[in-house]
Amino acid sequence: MFRRMIAVLLHISLVLLLAPAALAQQQEREEPVQRELRELRERLSFLEASLAKDIDNLMWYARMGDIAEIDIVRYAGPPPRVIPNPTAQGAGNPVIVTAYTFFPKKFLNAGKLPLIVLVHGGVHGNFGSGSAHIVRELMEQGYAVIAPEYRGSSGYGQRYWRLIDYGGLEIEDVFAGKQWMVENHPNVDPARVGIMGWSHGGLITLMNIFNHPQDYKVAYAGVPVSDLVARMGYKSDRYRELYSVPYHIGKTAEENVNEYRKRSPAWNAEKLQTPLLIHTTTNDEDVNVLEVEHLIKALKAAGKKFEYKIYDNAPGGHAFNRLDTKLAKESRAEIYRFLAGYLNPPAPVK
Fold first, then answer.
1. 38 or 270: whose pLDDT is higher?
2. C-alpha 220: how far from its chain's center?
3. Are strands 218-222 and 188-198 parallel, antiparallel or unpaired?
4. Do 304 and 272 touch, CB atoms closer than 8 A?
């Protein structure tokens, strides 16, 4: 890892040295130079993300090594949805997905453990050590955890970043991680598997239990992205372009509204069969509460049983129950009690 970090730093230095030389030729070759500079900026951005990921991997061991056995694993997900050259060698090969696994040291000899599939959020986000407090809380209760870095996650280079399939095959990447965990760890109980996530991770959580209802005993969705059609209506052009670019969905919601509906939990509510808890807050600055309200109304209209809570102007907005505040800790305790009712961990929250 350290050799890779040194190599990346040297590469960044070279890029920075080349940039002024390219600028000096701008008057002679304006358009080519602009293109070269854009490509250099992109390469530098992805190199920085990869380096940041390597450093953050070390942080996981520093922050969790006392309580958890940690590993970084790789497994196969479905092939890419968009294949620029279908006849190229290996073009239809499965996507290789990285994931973090955590096992609580305290309960390694406690028999089979329940599993939590923990799904990160963000458009091109990743599973960072900023979530260590949540993983630690899960370790203290006796859960095994897998956190997949589904396609489109940052820190794995441009090619992986461009495999993004929001509300699409990323769902199956996460499900494949669940399958990998129960197949490769005999101390994981396949009959006690839950899934949880916030924001984009909440959408993936919901779509996983909609697509694979028999594989999960329980689910939690915090401030979940719920309606991509509505979301495209209140977000900026720059945000919408993250979805309409050729390597992603390839069309706007205006051009293909059904594709955006297909990827939205609120438009798939009739599929719910799994015990579910939803949290949101009225002052969410990222996922407007109207999205989650639509989801809740759709679930009720479909006659589904589930639990939910809409907080009123919770301090922290979108991140309100992932903070270190008293309210956040109380909200997470509510989540853990809900999960424990179905997963029976060795040391449940009281």
1. 270
2. 14
3. parallel
4. yes
Domain count along the chain: 2
* 97 neighbors 151 (Cβ within 8 angstroms): yes
How is the beta sheet containing 276-281 ordered, strand by strand? 68-76, 96-104, 144-149, 113-119, 188-198, 218-222, 276-281, 307-311
List the structure tokens of 180. 């990998």
Name the pTM for this structure. Answer: 0.90
**Under a CB-based contact definition with an 8 Å cutoff, are residues 173 and 153 in contact?**
no
Question: Which range of residues forms the domain containing residue 206?
Answer: 65-343
In this structure, are 165 and 222 located in the same domain?
Answer: yes
From the list 233, 284, 262, 316, the residue with the least C-alpha distance to 293 is: 284
In-domain check, residue 251 = yes
8 A C-beta contact, residue 115 and residue 280: no
**Alpha carbon distance 209, 212 (integer Å):** 5
Element (H, E) at 40: helix 30-64
pLDDT tens sequence across 98-135? 999 999 999 999 899 999 999 999 999 999 999 999 99
Six token digits for residue 173: 């990447």
DSSP secondary structure, 223-262, as one string: S----HHHHHHHS-HHHHHHHHSTTTT-S-TTT-HHHHHH
Give the whole-number percent of the chain exceeding pLDDT 90: 87
